[in-house]
């Protein structure tokens, strides 16, 4: 039996999950309930999902996904906790541990999991980490429709938040930098954008399909004494590996100290 799913907080991430679920045919959910303080967030979903109060959502949904900002998770969970017996509670919040959630009045008969998705879930191309529990299969059925699912111990959740949760933003920055760099050289912006987007998709798909080490795929592009070697030299000289390592470390530390 398909579960009824409710999402509390239909902003950037909750909205992406809702859209991803609604796009999937056949639908992985029996019914989708949505609740948000901001009515504007609910408008795009009025035809396909049921906007309800959080109180009603918790009564009707088998799986309750909390997708509000990390500092608001405590308030939301404390409010809905008494109604969670027999339900599955999913928190997508960065930096909010299962231990903390357990202290907010959630009944013992409620399975609590953390999920770290990313916004490409909106188009079924997300990366979704889920803490292992008794309801792995049920959650895999729901989240597989949003992208690639991995079950991951909670001790790695700050790592995965820094990497794939935040990851799309790093890639968009790289894309923007490449487009602007090409425009600086004189390439028309629309051509630069198309070239960058397809290069990212092509390189990403090669990584996925060939399963090769990135270095091997890179070497195939680098003609000795050629253009790529000249470009890569500049990136290495300016410390691109260290920059990404620092970027991940800062994001990881921030996840640890968010709430
Ligand atoms: N954005 C991302 O890429 C990712 C986000 N996350 C996690 O997802 C969570 C949400 O982030 P994000 O979507 O960016 O945030 P948003 O602010 O875009 O979305 C949160 C939504 O929840 C609403 N809200 C606030 N309080 C309540 C409440 N009591 N009841 C119902 N709705 C409420 C907000 O309304 P209002 O604006 O009026 O306050 C807002 O519309 C965070 O915990 C974040 O860590 C995880 C992975 C990726
Ligand atoms: O920036 C954030 O804190 C959230 C968590 C991962 C992506 N966005």
Descriptive notes:
- NADP(+) binds at residues 8-13, 67-70.
- There is one protein chain.
- The protein is an alpha/beta fold and 259 residues long.
- It has 2 domains: 4-160, NAD(P)-binding Rossmann-like Domain (Rossmann fold, 3-Layer(aba) Sandwich); 167-256, ProC C-terminal domain-like fold (Orthogonal Bundle), CATH 1.10.3730.10.
- It has helices spanning 12-23, 39-42, 54-60, 73-80, 98-102, 136-143, 157-165, 167-185, 189-210, 214-219, 227-237, 240-256; strands at residues 4-8, 31-35, 50-51, 63-66, 88-91, 111-116, 126-130, 147-151.
- α1 (12-23) links the parallel β1 (4-8) and β2 (31-35).
- The longest helix has 22 residues, at 189-210.
- The model has no long low-confidence stretch (mean pLDDT 97).
- The site of NADPH dihydro-nicotinamide-adenine-dinucleotide phosphate has 26 residues, from α1.
Main features:
single chain; 259 residues; alpha/beta; Rossmann fold; ProC C-terminal domain-like fold; 2 domains; eight-stranded mixed β-sheet; 8 strands; 49% helix; elongated; binds NADPH dihydro-nicotinamide-adenine-dinucleotide phosphate; binds (2S)-3,4-dihydro-2H-pyrrole-2-carboxylic acid
Percentage beta strand: 5-15%
- CA gyration radius, whole angstroms: 21 Å
Sequence of secondary-structure elements: EHEHEHEHEHEEHEHHHHHH
Q: What is the C-level CATH assignment of the largest domain?
A: Alpha Beta
Our count of helices gives 12
| CATH architecture field of the largest domain | 3-Layer(aba) Sandwich
SS content category? alpha/beta
Q: What is the CATH homology-level superfamily of the largest domain?
A: NAD(P)-binding Rossmann-like Domain
Helix content: 40-55%
The dominant shape is elongated
Unique ligands: NADPH dihydro-nicotinamide-adenine-dinucleotide phosphate, (2S)-3,4-dihydro-2H-pyrrole-2-carboxylic acid
User: What are the segments in which pLDDT stays under 50 over at least 5 consecutive residues?
Assistant: none
Q: Tally the beta strands.
A: 8
Number of domains: 2
Q: Give the termini distance in whole angstroms.
A: 36 Å
Q: Strand order of the main beta sheet, please?
A: 3-2-1-4-5-6-7-8
Q: The CATH topology of the largest domain, please?
A: Rossmann fold
Average pLDDT value?
A: 97
Protein name: Pyrroline-5-carboxylate reductase
Pathway: Amino-acid biosynthesis; L-proline biosynthesis; L-proline from L-glutamate 5-semialdehyde: step 1/1
GO molecular function: pyrroline-5-carboxylate reductase activity
Family: Belongs to the pyrroline-5-carboxylate reductase family.
């Amino acid at each position: 039996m398909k579960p009824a799913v409710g999402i509390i907080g239909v902003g950037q991430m909750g909205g992406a999950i809702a859209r991803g679920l609604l796009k999937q045919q056949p639908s992985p959910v029996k019914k989708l309930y949505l609740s948000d303080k901001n009515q504007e967030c609910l408008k795009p979903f009025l035809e396909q999902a049921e906007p309800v109060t959080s109180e009603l959502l918790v009564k009707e949904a088998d799986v309750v996904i909390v997708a509000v900002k990390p500092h608001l998770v405590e308030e939301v969970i404390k409010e809905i906790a008494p109604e969670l017996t027999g339900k599955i509670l999913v928190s997508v919040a960065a930096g909010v541990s299962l231990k903390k959630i357990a202290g907010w009045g959630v009944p013992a008969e409620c399975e609590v999991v953390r999920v770290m998705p990313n916004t490409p879930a909106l188009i079924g191309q997300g990366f979704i980490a889920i803490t292992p529990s008794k309801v792995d299969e049920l959650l895999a059925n729901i989240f597989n429709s949003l992208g690639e699912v991995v079950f991951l111990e909670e001790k790695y959740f700050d790592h995965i938040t820094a990497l794939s949760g935040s990851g799309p933003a790093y890639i968009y920055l790289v894309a923007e930098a490449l487009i602007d760099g090409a425009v600086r050289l004189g390439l028309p912006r629309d051509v630069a954008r198309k070239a960058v987007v397809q290069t990212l998709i092509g390189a990403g798909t090669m990584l996925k399909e060939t399963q090769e080490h990135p270095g091997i795929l890179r070497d195939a592009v680098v003609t000795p004494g050629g253009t790529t070697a000249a470009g890569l030299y500049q990136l290495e000289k300016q410390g691109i590996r260290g920059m990404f390592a620092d970027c991940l470390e800062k994001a990881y530390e921030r996840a640890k100290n968010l709430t």
